[in-house]
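Appendix B, Record 12. Input sequence as logged:
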Amino acid sequence: MAEYDYDLFVVGAGSGGVRAARMASELGARVAIAEMDRMGGTCVNVGCIPKKLFVYGSHFSYDLQDARGYGWSTESSFDWATLLANKDREIARLNRIYEGLLEGAGADLVKGPARLLDPHTVEVCGTQHSAERILLATGGRAIVPDVPGREHALTSNAVFSLEELPERMMVVGAGYIALELGSVLCALGVDVTLVHRGEEILRGFDRDLRCHLHDELEAKGMRILLETRVEEIRQTNVGFEAQLSNGEVLETDFPVFAIGREPRIEGLGLEGLGVELGHRGGIVVDDDFTSSVPSIHAVGDVTDHIQLTPVALAEAMHFAHHFYGQGEHRIDYMSIPTAVFCQPELATVGLTEAEAWHRCQDVRVYRSVFTPLKLTLSERKEHSIVKLVVDASNDRVIGCHMAGHGAAEIIQGLAVAIKAGATKAQFDATIGIHPTSAEEFVTLR
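Logged structural output:
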């Protein structure tokens, strides 16, 4: 391989790219990685991490309400600038950590936009680098629909650099990002209207939880318009107005579109190289993340697989071990847990009830809706829901779902049980921790 400058050249220093570069380098490969923006990609800079920090910050508004029922005086004020500055400082710290991880592993970091010239050559800022293998880990980007006035439409990225909170926010979409950021701003006192073209929020999740969460979000003050589209956005003297398909003209200061993400492939120079793309523009890869061009590989959101950071990390681990290690690091895409950090948060692992009925001859469903103990002394009304889906033929639990405080932490543990093939009888035989919301999963009848 002396004919190449590197064994592996990675394009994109997000979660998947950094993990692949670091692992391959530690396994003995000569590695370089190119990044045109801040280290860490979407997750670190305008995704998972800052979003969760905003969720924590906004949830104190509810915690302070609850505190009064426990005898605490809760005179307080909120300063958005402080939260924003502290978030920025933490992200900068993580950017430095990512760069240090690569340096410590011995990988070369190349700053600037990368473009493939051929199956073994990458150009960055006019300098060419050759590599036996090229790994594309450029992630995705937010989709903005082609409607009149689309130049006024913002994406979720804009939330993370807001200089001050708007009075009125319109968020278009009803998936992870729309509900999470809408919940954050709603909790901070912003008048939030969610506009969604579908018949219910959170397509693909269990219907009981979708409807439950809809009610909880409206109870917190979020206005939800279903089966409604934005037909035009116009700028006014005091903000913006959106012409909706239901005939309403919605006035807003902050029109955000969170209707999905698409693979980021523009500028990579894939045209003419023979790299097969899927119907949504993602790079098509095999089980070892090799594209239709044997020397070009891809992991993470640019492949249009499951768009979750832990999935990109797992794919990167597989890639590094497969090509530069000695063992296989296979990925099981079944029963991947996930969470929506809206308020209340929702988490799930395994099959929904509808999916279970399509795959199993007989299904048993267990469900409980309750008021968490913490809120019994609070004037704030919020309910939790837990649900188990069981294959009646073998008693295996094939779906665990929850909406309520702590849902993500609880479901992460239950994901191990699902992966291990636990039965409903084994759930029943497990002694719960009392009083907790988690014990509901082992007391369902």
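The longest strand covers residues 127-136.
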